[in-house]
Structure formats: structure tokens, C-alpha cells
Amino acid sequence: MTESRAGRVSADEERAWEALVATARRTVADGLVVGTSGNVSARVGDTVLVTPSGVPYDRLTPDDVTGVGLDGRQVLGTLIPTSELPMHLAVYRATDARAVVHTHAVHATAVSLLVAELPPVHYMTAALGGPVRVAPYAAYGTDELARAMLTALTGRTGCLLQNHGTLTYGASLDQAYDRTAQLEWMCRLWLTASSVPGRTPSLLTEGQMAEVTERLRGYGQRP
Predict the structure, then answer these.
(1) What is the spatial distance between Cα 116 and Cα 83, in angstroms, rounded to a whole number?
(2) How far apart are CA 209 and CA 223, in angstroms?
(3) pLDDT tens-digit profile of 41-75?
(4) DSSP tag of 52
(5) pLDDT, tens digit, for every residue of 190-206?
(6) Which of 60, 78, 98, 191 has the highest Cβ tally under 10 A?
(7) Spatial distance between the Cα atoms of 130 and 146, rounded to a whole number of angstroms
(8) HEC states along 55-119?
(9) 3 annotated active-site
């Protein structure tokens, strides 16, 4: 167990911080963010570990662990938490999320400029709870943005942020990240299909979406 200048770090928090940093670095490697844009968080008990503001992910070390309580009060580390902390905390207060990923993915952000909702172009739409809504624009880091995001997330595990990017959550960092990657892929798919002159992309019906939602309940390996 290591000692942070703003609190003692548990073994669970150490492991979660290591996974969080790896996920943050992955968003850069996979082209979902540029520089220090975007942010990642993970919940351990009542502590939310978050990427710090303005620090390149490849420079983060175990000693840089940054954590806050659900009330936003810093309890671990001395680096300033991400400016998007209101969004992350809003998700944890309103859902059973254990991890949140926010990116500035190019295709997803492009879609947020064009429509109020990403249509059901692929059955993986069901993995996010249905057609992905776009939260109206609000300045980054504000409570207004956090409120708009929560509305867009109703019944969903991901949303688009107008003129901004994406936000997804999950039961783990891997699941939250996978949902982000799937969302970006579906946005790229829709943009590609929509760009063909004289053609309109076919969309899945409500019945088809209901069928695949049921099938996805049994997807993957059994515990």
C-alpha cells in the first residue's frame, strides 16, 4: 500500500488506478482523443478515481493517483481532477456504474453535429440500450452539461455530447471502453453509409432491436 499526500491508498485503489491509466493511454493509442483531451474514471467503494486535469497520460505514475468522494471533495492525491468531474460524478450518483470513459472521438463528434440521435444502423445499438441520443451543447466542465448528459443517458449506457464527444459507462473499465469503441464504430458506419449520393441507409426496426436485445442477454461466456 502506498501513501498519497492527500490520503492513504488501498490495494484495491492501486489496482484500479493502474487499470485506469492503462485505459486512458488506450484512448490515445486508438485515436479516440488527442493530447490530454477526454478523461476516464473508476469507482472503488465511495471513492472515484479520475484522470487529473491537463497531464499527459504517458506521464502518469502510481504516485499520481487522484481520487474524490461522491461529493466531489478530493480524498486522494494533490493533482487537480479532470475538469469534467461533474459529468463523472453525475453518472455515479444516478447509476450503478463502476467506470466512465469520455472521449473526443472524431466520427462520434461529427455525428453529434448532424442529428439529435444516432439511428439504429447496427444491432450493437442494443448493447447501449437503444438509439444513442445527443445531449444538447453546454460548456465543458459545467453542471449544465452534466444535467444534459444524464437526460441523454436515460435508459442508455452511452450518449453523444453535441459539438464535444462521447460518454459511456459500464460495470468495469473494459466494458465502458468497449462501449465507447462500439459507439465510435457505429458513428463511422452511419457517416459512411449516409455519404453515398442518392442512397438512404436502412435502419433496424423496433422488432429487430427487441429481438437482438434479448439475444444479447445470453452473449459471452458464463461465469
Answers:
(1) 25
(2) 26
(3) 999 999 999 999 999 999 999 999 999 999 999 99
(4) B
(5) 999 999 999 999 999 99
(6) 60
(7) 20
(8) CCHHHCCHHHCCEEECCCCEEECCCCECCCHHHHHHHHHHCCCCEEEEECCHHHHHHHCCCCEEC
(9) no
Cell of 23: 485505459
Residue with cell 493530447: 35
Residue pair 164/137 in contact by the 8 Å Cβ criterion: yes
What dihedral do alpha carbons 178, 180, 181, 187 form, nearest 10°?
Answer: 140
pTM above 0.90, yes or no: yes
How far is it, in rounded angstroms, from Cα 179 to Cα 206? 21
Q: What is the DSSP letter of 123?
A: G
Q: Characterize the bridge pairing of strands 132-135 and 158-161.
A: parallel
| Active-site residue (options: 14, 84, 206, 214) | 84
In sequence order, the 6+-apart residues with CB closer than 8 A to the CB of 34 are 28, 104
Q: Which of 133, 165, 164, 170 is nearest to 150 (CA)?
A: 133
Of 78, 176, 173, the C-alpha closest to 128 is: 176
DSSP 8-state assignment for residue 128: G
4-24: buried (b, 16+ CB within 10 Å) or exposed (e) per residue?
Answer: beebebeeebbebbebbbebb
Is the predicted pLDDT of residue 211 greater than 60, yes or no? yes
Residue 128 pLDDT more than 70?
Answer: yes
Q: How far apart are CA 4 and CA 55, in angstroms?
A: 18
